[in-house]
Design goal:
- By secondary structure, the chain is of the alpha/beta class.
- A hairpin with a 4-residue loop joins β2 and β3.
- The chain has a single domain, classed as Nucleotidyltransferase, domain 5, CATH 3.30.420.
- The strands form two sheets. Strands 3-2-1-4-5 form a five-stranded mixed β-sheet, with helices on both faces.
- It is globular.
- It contains seven helices and seven strands; from the N terminus they run βββαβαβααααββα.
Length: 209
């Protein structure tokens, strides 16, 4: 059975400006990744116990297949295997959070996967963190449709389809932000005083793989 039949996948609707190509010309497999959890930090005794939050939904956008692949907890091992096929995994807070949640399901150290974490890079350049939503609004004029707390409530209510759609949107924003930065050499943000600025980035995939 093909991996995309394990749970859920469908063709992607391109939300990018046509000047930015979703597909790498060199055919490197770039996987854009995000997940949602079953439990909050409070539920597991704090942020030091991310490994206990448990996977609710994980979503990957595959640059070669040009599709989303979605995984529930029962297919967590398939998700891990999918990530391992990547030439590069791209995420936002992926190394600390997403990999922290997913590590208990893996039979190898997820840090072995070649991964680019945009949050870490932005934090190094600015000296402080910015949210994915902040960067998306300023750079792409896009906005997240919900947040993690809403997703947790949906999980309690059994509304898995809503979590999948929300997670897919986050993956699309992650992908589009990375591709914008790669193509333009900067992303946009606002200072605490509301001044719009460009943040220079070097996100060429050839230097990251």
């Amino acid at each position: 059975m093909s991996e995309q039949l394990d749970l859920f996948a469908e063709p992607e609707k391109n939300t990018l400006d046509s000047k930015i190509s979703l597909k790498a010309s060199n055919e490197h497999r770039i996987l854009y990744f995000d997940l949602e959890t079953q439990k909050s930090a409070d539920d597991v005794g704090g942020w030091g116990n991310i490994h206990d939050m448990k996977l609710a939904v994980g979503v990957v956008w595959d640059s070669c297949e040009q599709e989303h692949f979605s995984y529930l907890e029962g297919a967590a091992l398939q998700l891990v295997k999918k990530l391992r096929t990547a030439d590069l995994v791209v995420g936002f807070n992926v190394k600390k959070f997403d990999y922290g949640v997913l590590q208990p399901y893996a039979d190898f150290d997820l840090d072995e996967i070649t991964t680019f974490d945009m949050l870490i890079d932005v934090n190094k350049k600015l000296g402080h963190r910015l949210s994915l939503n902040h960067l998306a609004e300023n750079t792409l004029n896009a906005k997240k449709s919900a947040d993690g707390l809403v997703s947790l409530q949906w999980y309690k209510e059994g509304k898995i389809d809503k979590i999948i759609e929300y997670c897919k949107q986050d993956v699309e924003i992650t992908r589009d932000l990375f591709l914008y930065g790669e193509s333009h050499g900067y992303v946009k943000y606002s200072t605490r005083s509301g001044v719009a600025k460009d943040l220079k980035v070097d996100w060429k995939r050839a230097s990251l793989i």
